[in-house]
Write a structure and sequence with these properties.
With about 50 residues, this protein is mostly helical. The chain contains three helices and no strands.
């Protein structure tokens, strides 16, 4: 399975942010969205967000 970070960075390779804070906010949103959709490996009835 490919690491989610690689997929995120490939999608936005040419994008630039106005500040490190803006980048961190965007990245946190991407991670949260993924965690809410992705099933946990050990407990597939739960999402990663449920387990966190």
């Amino acid at each position: 399975m490919q690491d989610r970070r690689r997929q995120i960075w490939h999608r936005v390779a040419d994008q630039r942010w106005t500040s490190l804070e803006a980048l961190n906010t965007w990245l946190a949103e991407q991670c949260t969205t993924h965690w809410q959709a992705a099933k946990h490996a050990e407990w597939p009835e739960l999402t990663i967000a449920d387990v966190l």
